[in-house]
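FAQ: What does a multi-protein file look like?

Like this. Sequence, then tokens, then the next protein.
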Amino acid sequence: MADTFARAIPTPGALAPSTDYDRTRWEERVLASRTLHHNARFLALVLSHHADASGRLPAGGIQHASRLAARTHLPGKQVRISLTALELAGFLTRPDLATWEAREVVRPITLTYPTAPARQEPPAPGAPR
């Protein structure tokens, strides 16, 4: 279970605004995802509604768990779980909590497209392993 919530450390380039963000395309990918829980999909649609044209929600915005919980009527714990699930699936990036200096301000969110995992094929029959 600990591996399920392991976070990748985003690079500054990953936190930069995306130049190819398209809200409709992003929402279609979220809805087509087979790995996201329905609460995470719902939360993703709310985030996309509040994001700017480049897919960013600025620091201190609506993405605070209590604000999202009030807006979506989801429990705060479910909001936090859904945000983490969206981050792990590659649909959003946030600065690392350990290095975020402004503790009183909610971290910004950038909506991103997940990268396709590298395809791994089994070795051919009779090939050395």
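And here is the next protein:
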Amino acid sequence: MLKDIVIRTESGFKVKKVSEEKMDREDKKFEKAFSDGVFAVPSTQKPNYRFQDLYNYALKKGVTPEQLGDEEWQMFKSDE
């Protein structure tokens, strides 16, 4: 049996017919590549905060970044 898959192209999208067996093989190959269950796509945006500085500040205070107040977070807001 064939399944429809949608593929993104530069000009839009196209639909391709693929067998269930091939889909299963591709799914297993993908799952094997991310055995810990984590799959992330890197962002192309610059960070909104200087996280290394923020982390070092929190470390010096003996707290985690989550425990810092909004005003402290604002001190590390990126200018870019």
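Q: Is there any per-entry metadata?
A: Some entries carry free-text notes. For the entry above: Residues 20-33 form the longest helix (14 residues).
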